[in-house]
Amino acid sequence: MVNKVLLLMATAVLALSCSQKTKERDPNTLGEFSAEHATDAEKNTNSNFKLDMNRIALSDVEIGVFPFINLSHGLEEMNKPLVREFDVCFFPIDGIMTPLEGNLYKTSISPKRGEDFSQHYFEKSMAKYLDSIGAVKVFDGEISKDEYDRYHKQDPNKGGEGDMGYAGQNIKFWVLRAKNQGNIYIQYHAYNAGASLNILQEADFTQTISKVTAEEIAKELSENGKAILYINFEVDQSKISDEGMEIVKQIGEALNSDKSLKIAIEGHTDKTGDPSKNKILSNDRANAVMLALVTDGIDQSRLTANGFGSEKPLIADDSEKNQAKNRRVELIRIN
C-alpha cells in the first residue's frame, strides 16, 4: 500500500514538472502556441504576458473599414470623435502603458436621449463581437498610480476625447491580427453612465515634410503662376514659428533671384471655427509673411497680402487630412 502511494506521488510530481517545463519554453509570452491554444485565463485576465502579435492567430473575418466597430443599439458618440490618420495611443501591455502608432480613433460614448446606459450590456456586447472576429483579450484590469504618474505626460491626447488610462480605472484591452487590415488594438473603459473607446490600426510613419527651397518656389511661380506653401504659425495666432521663418527666408531668396517678380500673398484656413474669425486670422497671417519679407529687404511694392479664410478650399474640407491641406499660404505671380 505504501509503495502504491509513493508511486502515485511520484507520478504527480513528474506530471507537474513536465507541465512547468512546457510553460518555460517561452515564459510570459501571449500565445505560447498561438492564440487558439491559450487558456481562457490567459486570454481574459491581467497577466504578465508580453505581447507578440506574430503569435496571435491570423483572422480572416471581414471587419469592414476603419474604425471597424459600430456602436451597439441605443448608444452614440458623445462629441466629435478624435480621428487621426497617424497618431499615438497608449495601451496597457503587461500593465505598462505603451505607445503604439497608426490610424487612431478615440471617442466618448453615451446613451441616446431617452435611453439608459448598461455597463454590463456594453461590455458584453463588445466582448462577444471582438471574440467573434478573432480578437484576443490581453488585459483586463487597472494600471497603478505609479504607472499613471510615469506615462501620462507623454500622451499628447491626455484629457481629450475618449481618453482613458487613469489610475484605478478598469481597462479592457483586445488585439486583433486581421488578414487584410494588419494589427488592430482595441481598448475600452465603461462605467455606470457611459464609456470610452479607443481603436488603433498599426501603421508605420511616413515622412511627408521636405525642405522648401528658393529654387522650387521660383520654379512653381514660373511654371504654374503660383506656389502653395505650408508655413507654421503659432496656434490661433499670426506669429510665424521658427520653422515657418525658414520658408519665408526661401521666399525672399526666390524674389531676390528675379528682381522683376511681384507676388500676391494669400492666407487660407480650413472651415473649422468661426468663418469671420478665420478670415481675419488668414489676413493677419498673410500680412505677417509680407512684413517678414519686407524686414528681410524685399521692396513692399512687389508684394500684396490678403486673407480668404475658408472661402477657397484647395480640396473638400471633409477630413482632418484635407483640412491640413487647406490651411496654407499661396504665392500668386502678378506680373
Automatic annotation (TrEMBL):
Domain of life: Bacteria
Hydrolase is among the record's keywords: no
Native organism: Sphingobacterium zhuxiongii
Keywords (A to Z) from UniProt: Cell outer membrane, Membrane
Residue ranges the record marks as coiled coil: none
Subcellular location: Cell outer membrane
Protein name: OmpA family protein
Pfam families reported in the protein's UniProt record: OmpA (PF00691)
A GO term from the CC aspect: cell outer membrane
Record-annotated OmpA-like domain positions: 220-335
Major subcellular site: membrane
UniProt keyword Membrane, yes or no: yes
